[in-house]
Write a structure and sequence with these properties.
Helix content: over 70%
Order of helices and strands: HHHHHHHHEEHHHHHHHHHHHHHHH
Distance between the termini: 60 Å
Number of strands: 2
Number of domains: 1
Low-confidence stretches: none
Mean pLDDT: 76
Amino acid sequence: MEVLSYLLTPFTDPIMLFALAVGVFAGVYVGAIPGLTGTMAVSLLVSLTFGWTTHISLAAMIGVYIGAVYGGSRSAILLNIPGAPAAVATGFDGYPMAQKGQAAKAIGVATTQSVVGGLFGTLALAIFAPLVSKIALNFSPMDYFMLAVMGLLMVGTLGGGSTVRGLIAACIGVLLGRVGQDSLSGITRFTFGSTALMAGVPAVVAMIGMYGFSEALVQMKSRRFETVKQDVSRIVPEVSTVIKHLGLTLRCSVIGTLVGAMPGAGGTIAALLAYDHAKRTTKNPEVPFGEGAIEGVVAPESSNNAAVGGAFIPMLTLGVPGDSVTAIIMSALIVHGMNPGPLLMQNSKDLFYIVVVLCLIGNIFLLFFGLTGIKLFAKFVEIPKGRLFPIIVILAVTGAYVTNNQIIHVFWMMLFGVVAYLLKRFGYPSSPLVLGIVLGNLLETNLRNALITFRGVGGCIQSIFTRPISLILFLIIVYALISKTVWFLKLKSSFVSIFKK
């Protein structure tokens, strides 16, 4: 009965449902605008919801998250400009379909597959998160340290196509996150005598700058916005089309959930892996991949939305964000007095079940909003970037200021925006930097606790090979490090060629 009451909580709060619905609606259109991302939208939303109750602010952020992941597919299909990184793979076949006058079919299929994938990820969250939580209770400080390292390695190796650049960005993030007063000893670090730096780097302000202000700096260089006219009078896909590709949808939903549950991976990688899976398993597509294959829309859209539920699993059970958006949501929960991690299921059991129900209802709202407003959207994306992004700058400045009503936070936001802009100019990804700031405290605190618990470096090394969880995490880290080396790739290709013979 206790669990049932938790599950029914959102249904008994109209304001929470309204915040969720508005969040999904806003997320669809934010994600659909090229250059605007769900990460940026959620980071701005955090600063605006500080005064709200925990459940209502959480509902709004989850709604924006769900809507934005799907919304990026619209501009990817109509304009071949992904509105979000997770929609990159959707444009491979979605845009060729639009060029053939099948934009309505592509958007309709993208909507239904996104909902199916989202529901699958939510189901996985409900079933497997409690199991992960029980396992996490057996984690030692050394396990958490290696978990944080694993998350940084994953996002580092996947960022920007360059392992070295991704890891450099992640290390910069960890270094910036260590600025300020040490939480264990109280000693100030890297403050250079400035009292403004004693409180450390404000994570939310840094995220607003890196995702909002920097994106405006990048995108405002282009002042032209080409318009594409499409016939979107009918978008509801045929039932036979959905049933025909149901097997591919479920397989790609599994991929999305698993990848989403890996700290730092996220929907972008899930979508690319699912697209590759579709190409390898679809033997006789009606249209070749890259020329308008419907399977090329089904696979990434079901996968990247399934990754939403998967990303909540490590965040709620381990205190490690699955991607940049859940990193922001985790920060917001901490601000509201919550403590995502192994003890969440004991101390705040209601929060877990509320998140599950919000994700479930959010995907139902997505089905409604995703199949409506297409004509309005077609006009909305025609807004010239030169007019759109100054508005984003104003919102970023406002969001940075209201986090603590300090003007210094505005300068922090601009500084991080410029840093992220320079990183992009030189080919360095900003996502590893974000995760480095968020995971920096987890990384350092647990390493120091491990050194105390296991009596030095020797004890820590010994614990790795005497504890099953530690050994598994260590092997994953080793594989992540060597899998990108040249000799490993050559050895792998040699084995593949031998087995083919």
